[in-house]
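May I ask for a protein sequence together with how it folds?
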Amino acid sequence: MHLECIGCGERYEAGEVIYTCRRCGNLLDVRYDYDEVSERLRLSGWRNRPLGVWRYRDLLPIPRSAPTISLNEGGTGLLRCPRLGEKLGLSHLYVKNEGENPTGSFKDRGMTVGVSKALELSARTVICASTGNTSASLAAYAAKTALNCVVLIPAGRVALGKVAQAVMHGAKVIAVKGSFDDALSAVRELAMEPGLYLLNSINPFRLEGQKTAAYEVWDQLGEKAPDKVVLPVGNAGNISAYWKGFKELETVGLANSHPSMIGVQASGARPVAEAFEAHADEIRPAPCPQTVATAIRIGNPVNWKKALAAMRESGGNAEIVTDVEILEAQRLLARMEGIFTEPAGAAPIAALRKLKERGLLSRDDIVVCVATGHGLKDPEIALKSCGQPVEVEADLEALKGVVRV
């Protein structure tokens, strides 16, 4: 195992604390000897382990001798959605419900691996910038290990449910007067101090944990890859993590096909989708990103190169949805399938109708949408979208008038 620059190919030792290439500044990726990995999988009896992130330890960058920090993350449901599928003209629609993770979002997959790596590297403090879910997850895993935790959030732009989690778990939460991109820039500078370990998705080890969701989808479909995977794109690490996971299943001989990856962005924060549609080699950052989906309110995503590569290499696509479409999709998913996801997690559902109209989805495709976080992460938005409870007097006749439907 080693780290390798996705740009110039420069290699670095896996035990080195480094986040980007010193030669060209590009992102790094974790690379394995897949012949050795295949042999380990053959001998390890991994299929006998419970569904979850560490079921796939043989494909993860934590040595067998090293301890792992776990809150029983992963193993989330892949739920068939027949009513919603029929409404949208899709016979095989599934939702990967990542809100079932311990802190309520997919970020726990990355943090169990990232914080385990931080301990292996003798870090004293873990740090991140966050639109909410990352801070909640990192704070929980740091608490489990007694590591110090510092999180920077954009002041006034993070859902209260997520801030509450980080505070409750004992993190030092600092509200920066600026955007998420400002907070991330500051965190990257701070992480140069000795003893601090950065756990945003610029850290390649964190994405290694997130790729396990792809393994689970394949497992849950009876060791079969779906035709399409539709994900929200914020800082753009998750779509590339899924793609790496599906590619690795093919590389080690477990799968013989892979899905097309479709990234969805909000109309007020869409640099990756715009670059994909323009066949551009660079993104144009959005200086003032705006969307009700706070988890993807990011104007200059660090993993844009990996995300574009995932969509292009997989034969995938990009879609842009409005806030109105996101909130409508959030209500539809909750009311037709009983799945309450945060607005960002509803963005893939919002994109389905448009993708169908563009001929990018067919009725018989096996389509997996990723609901990234639980709806209780952002209850204020849900109440604004759906309205307040009806108030009546505690009188039987008055209640009968309201209850009649």
Remarks:
- The CA atoms of residues 293 and 344 lie 5 Å apart.
- The domain at 78-104+206-386 is CATH 3.40.50.1100 (Rossmann fold).
- The chain has 15 helices and 13 strands.
- The mean pLDDT is 96.
